[in-house]
Write a structure and sequence with these properties.
This protein has about 450 residues and is of the alpha+beta class. Helices cover about 25% and strands about 25% of the residues.
Length: about 450
C-alpha cells in the first residue's frame, strides 16, 4: 500500500507539473502563435481585408479659433480668440495595394482618404457657420517673400497688387465659412491682370498642397482639401511575415528609407541621416503586437513630416477590454535643440520672430516650414505646455492636459488600437512685414504674434 501511495503521489506530481507546463508554457505559446497568424498580412487573409479597408471610419474632429477682435488687431491689439467646434468628420481610409515583395515580408500601397461631415455629431455646429480666421494663404505668401532675400522685389509688387491678388483685403483676417476654410477653399487670384497675374502664377507654381487651382483659373486655399481624395504618397510597410513584431512598420515612403525634410549632419551640413529624418513606426492605424509595460513605440505622421515616440503610461480598461495607454513625451515638441541632440528640427526659416539665439523656437513649438512649404508652427492645442514667450501673445487659450494631450490605448497582446486622440494645433506668426502696408500697424512690441489657425 505504501508503494502504491508513492506511485499515486508521484503521478499527482507529474500531472501537476504537466498542468503547470501547459498553463505557463504551452498555452501562452499557442496564443502567441495564434496572434502571430492573425496579425500577419497575407494576400486574401482577413487581416489583409482589414488592412485595405478599415472596418470603421475614424472620427476627425476640428476646432477653430474664431478671432473676435480683428479690427483692433490691425491697430496693434493682442488677438483674442474663441474656440468653436468640434466639427466632426468621418474619415474613411482605403489602401490601393500595388504589390507584395517577393518574400511576402513587405507590401506597397497608396492610401486614399475621404471625409464625410457628420452633422449629428457636430450639432449644433454646421459647415455653414461663419468664422473670422487668419488669412493664412495671404500671410504665408507675405512671410515667404520676407524670408527669402531673392523675393524682396516680389514684396514691392505684392504691396501694390494686394487688392487684385487677395480680393481687396482690409485686414489680415478673412470672413468665410467653415466649409470653405477647411475643405472647399477660400478663393483668391480671381481674374488677375498684369503683374497681379504674374504673382498668382508664381503662387500656383510654388506647389503648396493647401492651394489648388480652380476650373475658372482662380486659386483656393483650404486646410484639408488636399487630403480629401486620392493619395499620392507611396508606402512600403512590413507585413509581419518572419517577425510579427514589425507588422505595419513603415519601411519606405516614396521609395526612400528616410525623409529629406529636416536638417542632416551637424549644424545642417551634409552627412548621415539625422534622427529627425528617420521614418519609424506605423501610420497609427494599428500597432505591433506583444506590447510590454514600460516600453515605447513610434508612429509616423506625414501631416507633420516626422516620427513621434509614444511612451507607456498605465494599464487601462476600455469597455471591459484590458490594454495599455501610451502618450507623447517631452521629446515631441518641448525638448528640442542641441542640448537634446535633435537640433535638426531647428530649421530656422522664419525671419523676425521670437526664437532662441540658436534659431530653435522656444519649448512647445515646432517650425513646419520645410514640411509644408509654408510658415506654419506646430503646437499642442491651446499651446499646452508651450513657453510663455508664445502663450502671452494671444488671449482666449484654455490648455487642459486631459483634453489636449495625444494618447492611444492599445490591446497589449494584439496591438489593436482601442481608442485614442492625435491632437495638434497649426499656427502662424502674425507680424509687421517691411514694405507691406496692411501689416504696418500690427503690434511691434512683441515682435510677432503667435495666432492659432486650427486644431484637430
Amino acid at each position: 500500500m505504501l508503494h502504491w501511495s508513492l506511485i499515486v503521489s508521484a503521478l499527482g506530481v507529474i500531472v501537476a507539473v504537466l498542468g503547470g507546463y501547459c498553463g505557463w508554457s504551452l498555452f501562452p505559446t499557442m496564443i502567441h502563435k495564434k496572434v502571430e497568424q492573425s496579425v500577419i498580412i497575407s494576400d486574401g487573409s482577413e487581416q489583409f481585408k482589414r488592412f485595405v479597408n478599415l472596418p470603421q471610419p475614424l472620427n476627425f474632429k476640428v476646432y477653430i479659433f474664431n478671432v473676435t477682435n480683428p479690427e483692433m488687431i490691425q491697430h496693434g491689439a493682442i488677438p483674442i480668440v474663441e474656440e468653436i467646434g468640434p466639427y466632426v468628420y468621418k474619415q474613411y481610409r482605403q489602401k490601393k495595394v500595388k504589390h507584395f515583395s517577393r518574400d511576402g515580408s513587405k507590401i506597397t500601397y497608396v492610401q486614399n482618404v475621404h471625409f464625410d461631415f457628420d452633422a449629428d455629431a457636430s450639432a449644433p455646429y454646421t459647415q455653414s457657420d461663419r468664422i473670422v480666421a487668419l488669412n493664412m494663404h495671404m500671410n504665408s505668401v507675405l512671410q515667404i517673400g520676407e524670408n527669402d532675400p531673392g523675393l524682396a522685389l516680389l514684396l514691392v509688387h505684392l504691396n501694390a497688387n494686394l487688392k487684385a491678388v487677395f480680393n481687396d483685403p482690409h485686414s489680415m483676417f478673412v470672413h468665410t465659412s467653415v466649409r470653405e476654410y477647411l475643405f472647399d477653399g477660400v478663393r483668391f487670384c480671381i481674374n488677375p491682370q498684369g503683374i497681379a497675374k504674374a504673382i498668382c502664377n508664381q503662387i500656383k507654381e510654388s506647389g503648396s498642397k493647401t492651394i489648388r487651382e480652380q476650373s475658372d483659373g482662380s486659386l483656393a486655399f483650404s486646410f484639408f482639401g488636399h487630403k480629401n481624395g486620392s493619395g499620392h504618397e507611396v508606402y512600403e510597410v512590413h507585413t509581419g511575415k518572419g517577425d510579427a513584431t514589425k507588422v505595419l512598420e513603415i519601411q519606405k515612403l516614396d521609395d526612400s528609407h528616410n525623409l529629406q525634410v529636416w536638417l542632416n549632419g551637424s549644424n545642417g551640413s551634409e552627412g548621415e541621416t539625422s534622427v529627425c529624418n528617420q521614418i519609424n513606426g506605423t501610420d497609427a492605424s494599428s500597432y505591433p503586437p506583444f506590447r510590454q509595460r514600460g516600453d515605447s513605440m513610434y508612429i509616423f505622421s506625414a501631416d507633420i513630416c516626422r516620427s513621434v515616440q509614444l511612451f507607456y503610461q498605465s494599464d487601462i480598461q476600455y469597455q471591459g477590454i484590458p490594454g495599455f495607454r501610451y502618450s507623447i513625451g517631452e521629446n515631441f515638441i518641448n525638448d528640442i535643440g542641441p542640448e537634446h541632440d535633435n537640433e535638426c528640427f531647428c530649421v530656422d526659416k522664419l525671419a523676425n520672430v521670437i526664437k532662441r539665439k540658436n534659431g530653435c523656437l522656444y519649448a512647445g513649438a515646432l517650425d513646419l516650414t520645410t514640411c509644408l512649404d509654408a510658415p506654419v508652427i506646430l503646437t499642442l492645442p491651446h499651446m499646452l505646455g508651450a513657453s510663455n514667450e508664445y502663450r502671452k501673445m494671444i488671449r482666449g487659450l484654455k490648455p487642459d492636459a486631459k483634453k489636449h494631450q495625444t494618447f492611444v490605448d492599445v490591446q497589449s497582446l494584439t496591438g489593436t488600437p482601442l481608442q485614442g486622440g492625435k491632437r495638434v494645433q497649426f499656427n502662424m506668426f502674425l507680424k509687421s512685414i517691411n514694405r507691406i502696408t496692411i501689416t504696418e500697424n500690427l503690434d511691434h512690441s512683441a515682435n510677432a504674434r503667435h495666432l492659432g489657425g486650427g486644431g484637430q
